Automatic annotation (TrEMBL):
This is asparagine synthase (glutamine-hydrolyzing). Coiled coil: none annotated. Residues 2-213 form the Glutamine amidotransferase type-2 domain. InterPro entries: Asn_synth_AEB (IPR006426), Asn_synthase (IPR001962), ASN_synthetase/amidase (IPR051786), AsnB_N (IPR033738), GATase_2_dom (IPR017932), Ntn_hydrolases_N (IPR029055), Rossmann-like_a/b/a_fold (IPR014729). NCBIfam families: asn_synth_AEB. It comes from Azospirillum endophyticum. Pathway: Amino-acid biosynthesis; L-asparagine biosynthesis; L-asparagine from L-aspartate (L-Gln route): step 1/1. It is an enzyme of class 6 (ligase). It catalyses: L-aspartate + L-glutamine + ATP + H2O = L-asparagine + L-glutamate + AMP + diphosphate + H(+). It comes from the Bacteria. Keywords: ATP-binding, Glutamine amidotransferase, Ligase, Nucleotide-binding.
């Protein structure tokens, strides 16, 4: 992975100066610590921070085609670059590097915008066409990698992270209160946005063409089809497992391509264990694996992790995560993630990626995506039970099936209580609602908004989030099965905007680690979407095809194990006797008043309750509300109090790095010398 940044200038404005580009890319040094590259002409400035994975020699970006009419700053990996290169060379293209990056410019030269659908990878592409004077901003099918942009007057600025936009000086950091409120319901903003005013995100599977007038033309180049393939409708479970294993092996084989060693995460659960087992089948050389342990036994999976590592034969490394470790890591997680969080789960993953880096590994395989594509989450079971119950709403037996959902929550008979059943019965009859499966979760999390200030609550518009997702539902969505519809809603509203960001790219790249996801390979996902529901979920038994595959490679303790969601201690790690000083400081009335984002009375009352009870709250929604408010205050402190100094510090660090600069003759022809220009921030 890498960091990308740039500025596109209108025809009547001065081009971005090299100093501005340096300030932008300096904020992304964690994404690419191996050197920096720049390209400038009279309309565009491109910057790149390099993390060397493929083509270690000669891989500095921006990279161009033969006649230098196409320039690219690229973050990511194209896993089928070998095959594409072979195809392009047969068509007469000549390459000057061994990188996957150069493949993209030649592919665009050959295929134009049809290129994006040909790429098997995880990517954020910034491609400048000097002939047409057009910029392309493109993101991979599932939004694994981030790409943000903002319009400021006659300039369009873009970068891997919002902090780079702020570092350049054209964009002043300011919160968008309506989008902040979205986080307190949906865990993230809508997929096209950010929590910052005027800072937008390129959506997943989307190519934005910015023409010579700076007008944006948005095209979605891929969408899923969950309609069961008739040729797969009668597959047996063993046959489905065969197909899945074949596609996963291909996906892992491609993701083992690198000029550096590749490791694997092992959580102790089914998904990462399958990836580890298949990776070892393909690569019998020395392989490292990594896992998180917890001092709190309620979250720990040490025995399962070590069982898998020993079974598949990896050299296993782990960290033991305590409440103090979460306290220490959380501020860094927020700085890198650039959003409030309603969970602490990203913090241990941040520490895990640091362990990977310290072990000398740069790339790891991970099991994310299996639960979404193969129906492993309890939310899909909730949906099935509630629909079944809705057909006989007066039944006393049907709601008891909810006792088989969430095996690690609401113990001691709570799941048989009228309160538990009433919680899931609300809205139960609205089975035609677009987000039927997710409404219960969102309604529960939305309770957190009561801790926001009156001004922020006044802007809250959860419907805007849902309207955006509903407006971009794939063709044929209404004809899919209820399971398929809830699967795609989970992918679009949770996996892409939250999971792959807060628990994926941001915490890994904070430590210059690239995570690769075999379950998110296009061929794997297309197969999973086309499989009949019965080989994914039958009754309340989940991920059947994957479990059948796992039975061939893993111990029964793993492939028969119920799904255990990855979680980390929340308020028990942050409140009470062992609370860090920053909790009381950031949640003090003075700090709450200073930023004006949270309700002083409501936050103070709930925080004091949490301290009295040593963080042992009555319900998870109270925990999420407090974590969300605390991390919102952290982000406000970072943006308003720390960021200016960090911009200065990062800029000085870049002065000591290896830098490659290419400038077009058109700059001299135009008579522009903007090297030292310092733009002033403007409002959105």
């Amino acid at each position: 992975m890498c960091g990308v940044a740039g500025v596109l200038t209108g025809s009547r404005a001065e081009p971005a100066g090299l100093d501005e580009l340096k300030r932008m890319i300096a904020m992304l040094g964690h994404r690419g610590p191996d050197g920096y590259g720049f390209y400038r002409d009279d309309r565009i400035g491109l910057a790149h921070a390099r993390l060397s994975i493929v083509g270690l020699a000669g891989g500095f970006q921006p990279i161009h085609n033969e006649d230098r009419t196409l320039w690219i700053s690229f973050n990511g990996e194209i896993f089928n670059h070998v095959e594409l290169r072979r195809e392009l060379e047969a068509r007469g293209h000549r390459f000057y590097t061994q990188t996957d990056t150069e493949v993209i410019v030649h592919a665009f030269e050959e295929y134009g915008p049809a290129t994006w659908a040909k790429l098997n990878g995880q990517f954020a592409i910034c491609l400048w066409d000097t002939t047409r004077r057009e910029l392309w901003l493109v993101r991979d099918r599932l939004g694994i990698l981030p790409l943000f942009y903002a319009r400021r007057g006659e300039h369009l600025v873009f970068a891997s992270e919002a902090k780079a936009l702020f570092g350049g000086g054209r964009v002043a950091p300011a919160f968008d209160p309506a989008r902040l409120a979205q986080v307190f319901t949906h865990w993230s903003t809508a997929p096209h946005g950010s929590v910052f005013e005027g800072v937008e995100s390129v959506p997943a599977a989307t190519a934005i063409r910015v023409d010579s007038t700076l007008a944006l033309h948005v095209d979605r180049y891929w969408q899923p089809d969950f309609a069961t393939d008739p040729s797969l409708a009668k597959l047996s479970l063993d046959e489905a497992a065969d197909r899945l294993e074949e596609k996963l092996l291909d996906a892992i084989r491609l993701r083992l391509r690198a000029d550096v060693p590749v490791g694997v995460y092992i959580s102790g659960g089914l998904d990462s264990s399958v990836i580890a087992a298949l990776a070892r089948k393909l690569d019998t050389t020395h392989m490292h694996s990594f896992g998180v342990r917890f001092t709190d036994a309620g979250f720990d999976e040490t025995p399962q992790q070590r069982l898998v590592a020993g079974h598949v034969g990896t050299e296993h490394h782990d960290i033991l995560c305590s409440p103090q470790d979460i306290q220490t890591a959380l501020p860094d997680v927020i700085r890198h993630g650039e959003t409030p969080l309603v969970r602490t789960a990203p913090a241990p993953l941040f520490l895990l990626s640091r362990l990977v880096r310290e072990s000398g590994i740069r790339v790891v395989l991970s099991g994310e995506g299996a639960d979404e594509w193969l129906a492993g989450y309890d939310i899909f079971k909730e949906d099935k039970v509630r629909r079944f119950w809705a057909r006989q709403p007066g039944s006393k037996a049907r709601p008891k099936l909810l006792g088989r959902v969430h095996p690690f929550a609401a113990v001691n008979g709570q799941k048989d209580s009228p309160l538990w059943q009433a919680f899931f019965k609300r809205g139960m009859m609205d089975t035609d609602e677009t987000f039927y499966a997710h409404r219960t979760r969102w309604r529960n999390t939305a309770w957190s908004q009561r801790l926001l200030s009156a001004d922020v609550q006044a802007t809250a518009d959860d419907a805007a989030f849902e309207a955006h997702v509903a407006a971009h539902l794939p063709d044929g969505w209404s004809r899919w099965s209820p399971l398929a519809r809830s699967q795609w809603a989970e992918i679009a509203t949770f996996m892409t905007p939250y999971l792959l960001s807060a628990q994926g790219d941001r915490v890994a790249m904070a430590n210059s680690i690239e995570v690769r996801y075999p379950f998110l390979d296009p061929a794997v996902d297309d197969l999973c979407a086309a499989l009949p529901d019965r080989v994914k979920m039958l009754g309340l038994r989940d991920k059947l095809a994957l479990r059948r595959l796992a039975a061939r490679h893993l111990p029964a303790e793993i492939f028969q194990r119920p799904k255990r969601p990855y979680r980390a201690p929340m308020t028990t790690a942050l409140f009470g006797e062992g609370a860090p000083d920053y909790v009381r400081d950031l949640l003090s009335p003075d700090a709450l008043a200073r930023y004006g984002l949270a309700d002083i009375t409501a936050v103070s009352a709930l925080a004091e309750k949490a301290h009295r009870q040593n963080g042992n709250m009555a319900g998870e929604r109270e925990e999420m509300a407090l974590v969300g408010t605390l991390t919102l205050q952290m982000l406000a402190h970072y943006i308003h109090d720390e960021l200016p100094q960090r911009i200065r510090d990062q800029r000085s660090a870049l002065d000591r790095a290896e830098i490659h600069v290419l400038e077009d003759r058109a700059l001299k022809d135009r008579g522009a010398d903007a090297r030292t220009a310092t733009p002033q921030p403007t409002a959105a």
